[in-house]
Design brief:
The chain is mainly alpha-helical. Helices cover 73% and strands 0% of the residues. Keywords: Membrane, Transmembrane, Transmembrane helix, Transport.
């Protein structure tokens, strides 16, 4: 069962990055320089993929696909530390593989480093909001109606692409993987650690707050 869980986490994160990077490349190519259209394509494709992979792989692994989400469940003592570490490794490796597969599909150099700068207070505060919101819909959904979580996450991320200055990475594995693509979705490798630090900090702050907010009254 452990092997199946790790395979699901790796596969889901691979497919997530294929959707993020691939739709960014395709959107930019077809938009003719219109960044808004490219971002719309990027957001819709990512939201659709999130709904699909959470629905299909959720029964196997819980559908984290995100080290920050795994950290949140670890803080809540809902996953063992050793399994949490294994999940994170599977997610990071899966994300990198997804970027490389996307480059292959679009006939681009497999190995790249991004040159897109994403740093500063605005970007970091946007990532804090994005991370809190993602955990809000996950744990709020689990408390209210668990079968709604795939829809809630897909809708939230689709919207957060537009209402956050950072376009809502909200995922350390995604931040690492996107530093390895010099395309529409990329982030300068030197700026990825800042995103990851904010994502982790926001998770550690959000978990107790959301635990209190959604505490069962029964």
């Amino acid at each position: 069962m452990t092997g199946r869980k790790l395979a699901a986490e790796a596969l889901g994160t691979t497919l997530l990055l294929i959707s993020v990077v691939g739709s960014g490349i395709m959107g930019e190519s077809l938009a003719g320089g219109n960044t808004a259209i490219a971002l719309l394509a990027n957001a819709i494709a990512t939201g659709c993929m999130l709904y699909a992979i959470i629905t299909v792989l959720g029964p196997i692994s819980g559908a984290h696909f995100n080290p920050a989400v795994t950290l949140a469940f670890l803080v809540r003592w809902e996953i063992a530390p050793a399994m949490a570490v294994a999940y994170v490794l599977a997610q990071v490796l899966g994300g990198i593989l997804g970027v490389w597969i996307t480059h292959l599909m679009f006939d681009l150099p497999i190995l790249q480093l991004s040159t897109t700068e994403r740093a500063g207070l605005g970007q970091w505060s946007a990532e804090a909001v994005a991370m809190f919101g993602l955990l809000f819909v996950i744990f709020g959904g689990l408390a209210a109606r668990a079968d709604s979580v795939p829809t809630l996450v897909a809708l939230y991320i689709t919207g957060a692409y537009w209402f956050t200055a950072s376009t809502s990475f909200a995922n350390p594995a995604v931040s690492i993987a996107r530093s390895l693509t010099d395309t529409f979705a990329g982030i300068l490798p030197a700026h990825a650690p800042g995103f990851i630090a904010v994502q982790v900090a926001a998770t550690l702050v959000s978990v107790p707050l959301l635990g209190w907010l959604f505490r069962s009254s029964k």
